[in-house]
Amino acid sequence: MNAPAHPLPASQAVQTMKILRATTQEVVVLVAREPGGSWPSLRLLLDGQDYATINPGALVTGDATVAEIAIPLPALPETRLRSIAVADARTGALAPGSELRPVSKTKALRALVIYPAGEVYDHDKVRWYRAPMEKLLSDYFNIGDMIVYDSTLKLLDYAHLEPMKIMSPTDADIARYASEFDFVFVRGSNFIHESMEWFRAVEVLEKVKLPVYAIGVGAQASQNRRIELPEASKRFWSIVAERSAAIGVRGAFSAETLRQNGIRNVEVVGCPSIFRTRNRDLRIRVPDQRDIRKVAFSLRREADKSYTADPEAYLRNQKAALLKVDAQSEMVMSSHGEQEEKAFFLRDPAAKEKAVAEFTRTGWWNGAEDAAMRRIYEKQLFSFFDVEHYDAFARSQDLAVGYRVHGVLPAVAHGVPGVLVAYDTRSQELAETLKIPVVPEAALAEGGWRAVYQEAALNGLAKSYAGSYDRMRGFLDRNGIPNRM
Questions:
Q1: What is the pLDDT of residue 473?
Q2: Fewer beta carbons within 10 angstroms: which end of the chain, N or C?
Q3: Mean pLDDT of the region 54-61
Q4: Contacts of 325 (CB under 8 A, 6+ apart)
Q5: pTM over 0.85
Q6: What is the CA radius of gyration of the chain?
Q7: Which residues of 443-459 are buried (b: 16+ CB within 10 A; e: fewer)?
């Protein structure tokens, strides 16, 4: 039995043992010395039967207190190996990550997604769900979620994808998931907060013994504060933590929120949207200011106190920024799901009339005769219902600025420089993680894009991109997540 061992820094303290990843070819175990200084002996079980006993002390040299051990597996038919487990040879206690189906290295993989955001076509492209015009006009939906979903699919390697039913799954659904699928993933979104509803996801996952991966998930709050998760959410994230090497979060605030709620194997990876083109050597343009003509301003008009501490000042600053950028460039305002903006984009007269009344009521427009705002809405508004249209739009711009994380990140993924307004924890932590230039609301409102366009900061983003890409790819590989990065 040849089981390579790789000592790890003592700072990476872990529980006594944990399965990091398991494939049909090898299982990788993280193991720590016991309090007395000795290494625990491990029993490897395949489909519940003893296969080998491993003594880490014979494999790890030096004074390492934590080691990663790769145990090769025998060549077995893909359909035969249904579960892998690692146990403490002395106590019989199973390591977290045990009794799951190993991920195949040779067959086409079938994936389940929790909380999809749109319908998939051409394998990894996402568009919003088809609906009658009146429903498109009346419903709010976050196009940013659609972009993250699309971007995640572009990173993953799979042959077949289905949404996992979490509201009303049947016994037949659960049995099929358990027998036919290879892994589950949670797409990146604002899933870590007090009001998150997981319905019956925990029940399904407890019965479906598959790896579960979270890629770029985040906590949501208008300001940096402690978030106390309900027990159902804690249980959900505990399952994800047990079934993966680490939960991939978008930034430090999200990581700390999970740790404060008892979930400790967390890794900061950023957001899939900035890596959607899968180009590690991406060249992010940093043009001379004099060469910038076309500027995309991403709008986020609707925001409650979960996003900003002062909604009125937020709206006031955003309008000032919009008009300032418009005066300085050939601006296009991109809308990302608000109903009133869709009324103009879809050119529905009755819905537009209602929208103007709402704009006037909230002070977003200075009455129905606000000529500057009407011009922007009638002639300079871009929206979309499938992500590839946003890609084409972004590639045509010289600069992306604004309030939407997913108005800026996917533009950067195409080499377009981007500057993000920081108004909540989400935008702030993503900017810090990915080195996106971030500015206060007042800066863009007072000086427009020219005041916030700093070549040094954008060059920093360009230089750091490959490192950020490697961090995401390394996270996927360490978790054993099938990927195409």
A1: 98
A2: N
A3: 89
A4: 295, 297, 331, 401, 444, 448, 449
A5: yes
A6: 24
A7: bbbebbbeebbeeebbe
Residues in contact with 284: Cβ distance below 8 Å, sequence separation at least 6, in sequence order: 412, 415, 416, 417, 458, 461, 462, 465
pLDDT tens per residue across span 167-185: 999 999 999 999 999 999 9
Residues found in the chain = 485
Residue 192 Cα to chain centre, angstroms: 12
